[in-house]
Write a structure and sequence with these properties.
It contains four helices and four strands.
Length: 91
């Protein structure tokens, strides 16, 4: 994982809010994928804020999109928000 990458989360009223911070590389992508799988239990919706992602490395994006297509994201009730959202799920 990029040394400056972190994920902060909060669950409120059946909704999980996740904030991504730092550089997004291959290891960061795996951490995000694992967090989404673990934390989506018992929540109806997940919002992932990408405003604080500084750099998105091509390999990190490839790892994430290789495991979680935009269709899977939407069907799982996951909404990406913030200035970098299209880097994760497309337009």
């Amino acid at each position: 994982m990029a040394s400056n990458f972190s994920i902060h989360h909060l669950v409120k009223n059946g909704t999980l809010y996740m904030d991504l911070n730092g550089d997004f590389d291959g290891s960061s992508a795996m951490e995000l994928l694992n967090e989404l799988v673990i934390r989506r239990v018992n929540v109806e919706k997940i919002f992932v804020n990408t405003d604080n992602v500084k750099a998105i490395h091509a390999f990190g994006k490839a790892v994430f999109t290789g495991h979680f297509s935009p269709h899977h994201v939407r069907s799982a009730g996951i909404v990406f928000t913030g200035s970098n959202r299209t880097e994760f799920i497309g337009p």
